[in-house]
Amino acid sequence: MQKRQQEKDSSTAQSVMATILQSIPKEAQVSKIDYEGPRIALYTRSPSFLMENNQIVSDLVNVIKKRIVVRTEESIRKNEDDARKIIAEALPKEAELGGTYFDTATGEVSVEVKRPWLLQNNPEFNSAKLTEQMGWRIRIRKATIIQSSTIQQINYNLKLSSSERSKQLKQIGESIFRPRLAQRSEVSLMTLGGFGQVGRSSMILTTPESKILIDCGVNPGARSPSEAFPRLDWANITLDELDAIVIGHAHLDHTGFLPVLCKYGYKGPIYCTEPTLPMMNLIQLDAIRVAAAQGRAPLYAERDVKQIMRQTITIPYGTVTDIAPDIKLVFSNAGHILGSATCHFHIGNGDHNFVYTGDIKFGKSILFDSASWNYPRVETLLIESTYGAREDIQPTRQEVESAFINAVNNTLVDGGKVLIPIPAVGRAQEILMVIDHYMKAGQMVEAPVFTEGMISEATAIHEAYPEYLARELRQKILETDDNPFDSEYFTNIEHSDAREEPLRDNTPCIILATSGMLEGGPVLEYFRNIAPGNKNKIIFVSYQVNGTLGRRVLDGSKQVSLLGKDGKVEVVNVNCSMIKLDGFSGHSDFNQLMSFVHKLRPKLRRVLVNHGERRKCESLAMNIRRQFRVPAHYPQVQEAIRLF
Amino acid sequence: MQKRQQEKDSSTAQSVMATILQSIPKEAQVSKIDYEGPRIALYTRSPSFLMENNQIVSDLVNVIKKRIVVRTEESIRKNEDDARKIIAEALPKEAELGGTYFDTATGEVSVEVKRPWLLQNNPEFNSAKLTEQMGWRIRIRKATIIQSSTIQQINYNLKLSSSERSKQLKQIGESIFRPRLAQRSEVSLMTLGGFGQVGRSSMILTTPESKILIDCGVNPGARSPSEAFPRLDWANITLDELDAIVIGHAHLDHTGFLPVLCKYGYKGPIYCTEPTLPMMNLIQLDAIRVAAAQGRAPLYAERDVKQIMRQTITIPYGTVTDIAPDIKLVFSNAGHILGSATCHFHIGNGDHNFVYTGDIKFGKSILFDSASWNYPRVETLLIESTYGAREDIQPTRQEVESAFINAVNNTLVDGGKVLIPIPAVGRAQEILMVIDHYMKAGQMVEAPVFTEGMISEATAIHEAYPEYLARELRQKILETDDNPFDSEYFTNIEHSDAREEPLRDNTPCIILATSGMLEGGPVLEYFRNIAPGNKNKIIFVSYQVNGTLGRRVLDGSKQVSLLGKDGKVEVVNVNCSMIKLDGFSGHSDFNQLMSFVHKLRPKLRRVLVNHGERRKCESLAMNIRRQFRVPAHYPQVQEAIRLF
């Protein structure tokens, strides 16, 4: 108790400032100490001193238990042209300098480089010296083959809003580090969506000090607003009562309602991993276009998505971040899609540790490592259950890959075309990696691979964040010239005129196109041409919902009708073969979910199950109870559960 | 669905008014239709027509499904003096007219009469004619032997606030009968106190339309505010968001925080049964005195208790009352204390029925009938569990009564005195009835019975509401001159000087005095005198909490120290005998709780357990699950449970 009191005292704003001032030597030339969101920024006129003596800052972090960043004072920052020249001179030519992006809110310059590995352990490249020279902290990034227009948009927006963001980050910091009022911790979880159901994931973590909204999805399949959106109305809170919004990953069922909150005036911070920001922006903007194409009024406009960019604070995996006076957040790899994270909330001074898996893949894929599980502490685990029933067992990766190779090879050898209807984000990149891998290894017949839709843009975002990819893939990208995303087999179809090539007769090829359930998008144009040919094949790699064209085709319909471009109904004969492959899923199957819980078992006091149809939640909860002897429940939407 | 739509339409404000206007004949001379809280008031210049043709109103109630009251137009009301003269002339002399109380907010006159049975089926007493004559609706009440000063205070306050209340009742009505916004019903229960614990009972029933606070108690034993009071802070609502407060019974652990809500600006209606209002006022005012005596700052002042009187709408048992656009409330006898009620909430158009037992006695006592259980429908039951463990079995009434008789007789025959430390409300009246019954029957040695403290005031309130007493007792009071409350054995000690009589040497007698655990109050003065005498006896009939003087004495201490009047510590030798009797409890024992659930079993979908220590809740829930195969849970404080 006494220890805790001391910890508390040493974390008050005044004592933090005093500790910093006492610990920083004069040579550091620190001229200002300020909040920058969840971090404390030390502004200096001589950044190289603290960069070279980085022990000073890490010692300080250990004492004050807060993140510290070293920033350059604005007065020493060279103008962007001069700074870029200095960079160009300092880099070895072979590294190949790409774009540079200056963020005036933080004084950081992101430098894109084609061969970043040439800068590592290179005595001629001294980033401290370079920072001192130009007054901007340098951050080296891998230059991508394809430029992601989403990331460019974000950078442009951040530049426009930099002075606004500086102020906002300071306010957020003041709010996070305000004094705690309550002596005791108390923790409740309010369920707003995605409990006993898939879709509209959302919940609020509350303590007497703070309220954190976790995920903010939509349920696209729902008929009424009370079933489609998170039940913020039931939670009876106003948006300015929220301390923060935390987003686990980019999919619409976790982020689709977030722009609406910004539209209606949410002004606080949004936390997610670095790639989640462009990924969710891409998906949120696409949802506007899809709504328009289907004649529905979109829920929000482009400006609301832009607003999200300005309020988002990105955090890498594994970084402990204060997001409220009594809550620390750590993201860890969830293995589901790029940037997907499990969220670990450390509440009070260790009073309670709550882990929310979000969508999780506890199994390795080519793109991602298996989800992390090594949390120092976790008393309450909230786990998804998309495949939570005992019978939800997927084939092994080896099995599904060899089935895929066979299916593709048979068709290509026969001179046919392979069409893979696919969601743009995640699964498409995984299939591309599989194809590249096996073609290069000589196990798959070589043939051109065409991509369509948002796939190429999503791929560009993957390439921009190699730190978030599986270890082997990351090493390939960051340390060699062999970049699988830049495979010579791949061709992106930028415009519908270019479709002639993949559709040319007697040219075996593989085509990946959206949408994944033949519900719309470019895939239909290919389907119209490919389905009648009995040498061709359609490979489904994702779930086909009842009522979709994909499902009808998969179920064996020999004739289906489409709405043609001219508005007339067109009958398509389906003579091609088809196959459905499970096992490329970004979700854990039943065994993987149980293994994940098993790993955490020694620490757990309680498991909650969400994000699955009711009977999946029920089944997983029951099996966890029986096998691991730990209390497990599956709340519904509109419940509050006392965690501590 | 269509039927429901129709029902909904016919209940909108406009159609209600239209229906009334069409159904009321001209002869009724209705000149105004207005809301009066949850009722619709028809103001007439000729009240006798609707009173004599009461079929018209009951037909109308069946159509509009709302309560209707007939009120006299203000212009026809005679002044109070003239009206009283008319009453005096109309009543038979032998009925003995007592006080009259005119409520200008409702145009009702309460007439106290010593022998009300003389007016029943008396052709000479025509209340419709009398109402027509004086312009006030007449309500006959039994005149009590002792005047309850609490009830007089309430009447005085209602008179002072009558014009304010008229306006307020209209506003409440408009709020209750506002149009429903949501199509579907959704029901959640938020637990604010009294779950997994005894004390600070409180919860909020929420639907998309409305929020009802049920009970608002304190936990007097708790150390910190976060454990002592309902967690309205956690529920995150403001007081003006509440549609209503519903109070089940008067005890402090269900009402002790209510004055604080009024203090901080709650302006809405408070619903309880008729006797619960004076009972809770008495108890709430006493709590101020107790706090002052113990040197603590009271939570609220007398004016806050007065404010409660003005906002309370009393409802008799069995009357269906709209309290929100989508919620109807019915109180039924809970058998626990005077006016104690189980609360039945009928939500939506029958979408869900929720019954909260409050403190419940499912077993007959002399004062009260056994709790009602015959609800037309109940899907969710919330039941208390004070004695919820399997081993919590009380002796039968017969056993405890004969033990009591023996204990008293032995001492009285021996020439000793019997001291019964007792809580003022409920248990004291029960013991008085037992004594009167057995003394009259010749089974108990006749001796004077002295009462002290608030007991006499509480007894007066019991006498004022004979409708709420057990059938036999009620009949005695309402239909005969044999009124057990007016027993010749009883003497109330109004002032401490009068204690000489009960304390006189060698005078066998029985003394009932507060408090029940020897923690303070007049009982200590008697204890000091009676404990040293080895012929005397102390009978404990209520639970003695650990650490109280009562518990120490019961555990066999032969010497105890008291703080004397002069502030000096005084040592008291305990030579008298003592006995503890269970079975007079106002709570159901384990078997009675199970029997109650058994009665409801065919209707139930789910049982929730509260108001018991955690292991009592757990035990009762488990036994209900096992024996009745119905889901049963025991939530904690600060949870929300989706009921529908």
UniProtKB/TrEMBL annotation, chains A, B:
Pfam families referenced in this protein's UniProt entry, alphabetically: Beta-Casp (PF10996), KH_TffA (PF17214), Lactamase_B (PF00753), RMMBL (PF07521)
Its required cofactor(s), as named, are: Zn(2+)
Q: Which residues form the Metallo-beta-lactamase domain?
A: 199-397
SUPFAM superfamilies registered for this protein in UniProt = Metallo-hydrolase/oxidoreductase
Q: Where does Zn(2+) 2 bind?
A: 253-254, 359, 611
Where is the Beta-Casp domain positioned along the sequence?
428-553
**Residue sites binding Zn(2+) 1 per the record:** 249, 251, 336, 359
Listed A to Z, the keywords are: DNA-binding, Endonuclease, Exonuclease, Hydrolase, Metal-binding, Nuclease, RNA-binding, Transcription, Transcription regulation, Transcription termination, Zinc
Residues covered by region (Metallo-beta-lactamase N-terminus): 186-390
Query: Which residues lie within the region annotated KHa?
Result: 10-77
Q: Which Gene3D superfamilies match?
A: 3.30.300.20, 3.30.300.230, 3.40.50.10890, Ribonuclease Z/Hydroxyacylglutathione hydrolase-like (3.60.15.10)
Which CDD domains is this protein grouped with?
KH-II_CPSF_arch_rpt1 (cd22532), TTHA0252-CPSF-like_MBL-fold (cd16295)
- Which top EC class applies here? hydrolase
**GO molecular function terms here?**
DNA binding; RNA binding; RNA endonuclease activity; RNA exonuclease activity; zinc ion binding
Q: How is the cofactor bound?
A: Binds 2 Zn(2+) ions, which are required for nuclease activity.
The family classification in the record reads: Belongs to the metallo-beta-lactamase superfamily. RNA-metabolizing metallo-beta-lactamase-like family. FttA subfamily.
The name this protein goes by in its record? Transcription termination factor FttA
Q: What is the organism field in this record?
A: Candidatus Nitrosotenuis cloacae
Lineage, top ranks = Archaea, Nitrososphaerota, Candidatus Nitrosotenuis
Gene assigned in the entry: fttA
